[in-house]
Specification:
The chain is elongated. It has two domains: 158 residues, 3-Layer(aba) Sandwich (Rossmann fold); 122 residues, Elongation Factor Tu (Ef-tu), domain 3, CATH 2.40.30. Helix 7 packs antiparallel against helix 8. It has 308 residues and is of the alpha/beta class.
Amino acid sequence: MRIITIGTNNTARHHTPLCACIGYFDGMHRGHQELIRSTVEMAEKYGCESALITFDPDPWVTIKGLTSVAHITTMRQRMNLAVHFGIENIVILKFTKDMSMMEPDVFVNRILGSLNLKGLVCGFDFRYGCGGRGTSETLKSQFAGELRIIDPVTDEKGKISSTRISACLQRGRIEEANAMLGYPYFIEGKIIHGNHVGTGLGFPTVNVSYSQEYQIPKNGVYAGFAVVSGKQYQAMINFGHNPTVNYSQPVSLEAHLIGFSGDIYGKYIRVYPLIYLRPEIRFKNRDNLCMQLYQDRRTVISLLKDYE
């Protein structure tokens, strides 16, 4: 994977012929995958490399002056998923206020024009330039190469979108979100030391330091998997504040890895919550909490048989 960064005052010319798709691609869901599929196909047609053009930060952060926006995926995840789906180059546009104020034709000529684009793929609702005045339709007259405009990808409830997927995550409807993503939703992070409360209860957990950029799922307990050091484990996963024994703010992410023992502090982990089991509960005492945890673990093992 090659990464190309372009700023507002970019003067560099990139001579490698490319066919690219353009967008923010949060979630890299089935709609985005259709753009990528068409891009890879076009690159093969022209005998050149494929590329994905995206923005950093999120355009809403720049345009609306927001300090933070929750995302289904981080930039690192989006790049890795793009490569997984066949993209060879990542073009990151440093989306400043000046870039947001460019007239549509200036954006096409100065920014996209710095790339040797043989073809471009965008969604039907793609907008660019000052005030979003540029659309997929205006690109037809402004872009000199082959332009493909991709229709919405839909399911029985309508257009698949990052907004719909985020709403499902917030409601704990992971399976519905995964159907739209086309792959299992996951969070990446680093394993850190906790207070070892779980160990004292007989349920040692890994505490995960994750980016606060994530749109995390509804608080509660999930059945899922975790992958660390290349090995996958069944996992009882909790998003929440640990109200019974160790209240935390912001939301903590902990996973009890079934069948694991050892020291993995400092390692990176992927956590895949697959099935929402129950909300987080404040128990009267530790004994009641332990009883529930034993029941949760039995439920996790039973449910995950269908996923192996």
